[in-house]
Hints:
Layout: E1 3-9, E2 18-24, H1 33-46, E3 69-70, E4 73-74, E5 96-100, E6 109-111, E7 114-115, H2 118-125, H3 147-157, H4 164-168, H5 175-186, H6 195-208, H7 219-223, H8 231-247
Amino acid sequence: MKLHLKIWRQENKNADGKLVDYTLENLNPHMSFLEMLDTLNEKLILANDTPVEFDHDCREGICGQCGMMINGIAHGPLKNTTTCQLHLRSFKDGEVVFIEPFRSEAFPVKKDLKVDRSAFDRIISSGGFVSINTGQAPEALTIPVTHQVTEAAFDAAACIGCGACVATCKNGSAALFTSAKINHMVLLPQGKEERLTRVIDMVNQMDEELFGHCSNTEACEVECPQGISVLNIARMNYEYNRAHLLKK
């Protein structure tokens, strides 16, 4: 198949960027989207041109590094799918495909499609962990956690931190990411000891990173490759208000 690509090229965060046209032919529909970009970069290198910079790591939909906007949609047209798990069969032969980096004030462009998502790391560092000594792993049947709570915690912990929620939100909010990282610990016994300080510290850090406010459009859940529910945001708001009341 043949694709006409319009890819955002930008030297660094201070430089002006622009869309550059590329055309690739004889592509296998079963290639992944990132394999297609690899093919383009091989072509550019052979022509002594600068290859397109983009983030990737595991290429198995686990690490969350491969995020980009494809035709204006975070990770592309398939629901609950990361960019690395997207294949060319999802596009039409001869289609024009726009490829851009995630757009957010908190995610400055490093180069081309690569963005700086270290703001997420600072949110985690502010409280997204259990610092108390929990000892060795106890017998599972002795932990007082119901199946429903376990499933809710696991669903929140499935967040891979890709940033699609931020990129697709009209306000650039990180509420879905932050709430998922808060809730998967607050639901389990090991995370309850630091329940009050964790939510306050992480929400405050999120605000300091210049992420926008959540206005409940729920676009983040739609574009999340893991399908993280916006109910996590409601629980985070509850935990935040509860923490302030109890600390008084």
